[in-house]
Amino acid sequence: MKTNKLFISGKHAAREALQYAPHAVTRVFVSRDFKDAEISKLIADARIEKSPLSEGEMRADLKGNQSSQGIVVQVSLVSLTLPLEKYLEQAEISPKTALVLLDGVQDPHNMGAIIRSAAAFGASAVLIPGAKQSPVTAAVIKSSAGMAFQLPLVSVISSAMALQTLKKKGFKAYALAAGKQDVAAAEFKSPSVFVLGNEGIGLEKSVRALCDETLSIPMHVEAESLNVAASAAVALYSWSKRHPEALQF
After folding, report:
1. Cβ(217)–Cβ(226) under 8 Å?
2. What is the pTM of this model?
3. Architecture of domain 91-247
């Protein structure tokens, strides 16, 4: 059974959540001797309820010898993510818009690394299907280095339905797999969506069929293929070279 509650420990994660996504933080668990002026101010400014740390530390997603550093934040996944329709209503779509669509990425560390790369190279959002896909977990948040609180996470019913909607909005869809087009040679003149498949089987045929182009990453003939997170980083870097304005803040 899926839960809407996510419990994340540590000062760094708490600071990122409270600073960039306070609307998604429903409760904060703190120790009696917790001292961090910046975090305490963020909690007070957001008027978030505080509870004893022991209640937060007992949650299942904190098992594994993690150090809470005296603070645990409870996050609402429903509040953290946006439905695709709502995201598109408020987004400014242009040729410098890039999205990342996940299609069966199972490893939460890969998922977190992809979110981190998407933020680093100027992508506007990461789209996450509700099935056959790793959900947002504490491990995803940690692997994203907190970027999951800064970059919009968009929920979609399925990858195929998301692609159909995005293509009607003028997006060009790029599959990352073995193909004729070198990712470094792609011009990315239209709004772009990069589609990333499962670590083992790649993209589903129905999803790949909806993509406009398949991009490949040239590699040494004796080297093994890159994993999905590394491939995403290379592709997004190549896109950012065509759109350096996306890196200006």
Report:
1. yes
2. 0.91
3. 3-Layer(aba) Sandwich (3.40)
